[in-house]
Amino acid sequence: MEMLDTDQVPAGDRFAFWREINARLWAPYDVQCDRELARDFQAHVGVSAFGPVEATLMTSVPHTVRRTPKLIRQSDPGMFKISCTVRGTARVARDDTYSELPAGDMAFYDPSTPYVAGLAPDSPAHRLLLLRFPRTALHLPQRQLRELNGVRIPGKRGVGALASQFFLGLADHLHELEPADTARLATVTLDVLTEALATALDVTDALPAHVRRRALRARVHAFVRAHLGDRDLTPAMIASAHHISVRYLHKLFEEEELTVAGSIRERRLEQCRRELADPLLATRPVAAIAARWGFGGPTQFGQAFRRRYGVSPSRFRGSSAPASECAETREPCADD
To answer: By the 8 A CB rule, do 23 and 71 touch?
Structure first.
């Protein structure tokens, strides 16, 4: 991941440096900021590219960008862009009317068309995930997509909510991406984008079946990640949340390495292993970690962990006295 930070330059030059970053990463903008904030402007971005998709995780103080007709005549990047608010509140203007975009909400942008976007002054630092991709990358007519320029896509209901979960999960794990992840992630990201935008345009029936299927599978994975700690997370619950049958859910996973239940178990074990390896959580009982990630009991967890990693949870953690730790918390050891 490429990192760019305004701290790289003296305080008085940071806002000008941020204008340069905007032009380099996206397109030339008229960037405006409160005078006090501009004196010591603070922003940093991490940029990752996977296939035709460029993902930028941006943290910044409030400011506004304008894509004006004059700037459009100077440069047209031939790209579309979508934002997802990760923290704070973003803003987007369409026909001189501003919409607020709290965490989870998305907005679509066409840099060949004028628009205004920004970050609200209600927080000292906001975080956005910005995805940029070629206009030809989506299975949707460009003329129709331009109708969405500056349109808010709510992330609290319907397909918007499921797409939002996927993008928020991507923001959380962007720094972990390996080169082997990029090809598959590019396809999945574009499928999710296509379905979310097709829903906003009310043209989902026109999407190819394989695009709808892959997008649905990606949303299911995002739903599983968001509900890992829920002991009631079952194939039936997942199917109900996505308005499909359990049979169809299992069919979706026929192309995956793991079944639905196997995928849930694997992700839970990964989270438990991460927390067991964290020195800051060394005093947290093994059974508490298991319960936090949805395991029904310490014995069930201990057996699953040993089968997956070949060692008990307490031995993996490297505890010198796991038995006494369990006794102090009056909880059964996960190894028993």
So the answer is: no
SS3 assignment, position 44:
strand
Q: What is the DSSP letter of 308?
A: H
CA dihedral sign of residues 215, 216, 222, 225 = negative
pLDDT tens profile 249-286: 999 888 888 899 999 999 999 999 999 999 889 899 99
Q: How far apart are CA 185 and CA 183, in angstroms?
A: 5
Element (H, E) at 158: helix 158-173
Distances (CA, A) of 125 to 14, 205, 211, 255: 16, 40, 36, 41
Tokens found for residue 291? 């319960």
How is residue 174 written in tokens? 């962007």
Please name the residue that has the structure tokens 């305080």.
11
Angle at 41 between CA 37 and CA 44, to 5 degrees: 135
- Measure the N-to-C terminal CA separation of the chain; round to a whole number of Å: 43
- Supply 117's token pair: 């976007």
This prediction's pTM: 0.68
Q: What is the pLDDT of residues 11-66, one digit of tens each?
A: 889 999 999 999 888 889 999 999 888 888 999 999 988 888 999 999 999 999 99
Domain boundaries, the chain: 2-226
HEC readout, 161-211? HHHHHHHHHHHHHHHHCCHHHHHHHHHHHHHHHHHHHHHHHCCHHHCCHHH
Instruction: Round to whole Å and give the CA distance between 216 and 220.
Output: 6
CA 150 – CA 152 distance, rounded (Å): 7
- CATH classification for the domain delimited by 2-226, as one of 2.60.120.10, 3.30.1130.10, 3.30.950.10, 2.60.40.420: 2.60.120.10
Length in residues, the chain: 336
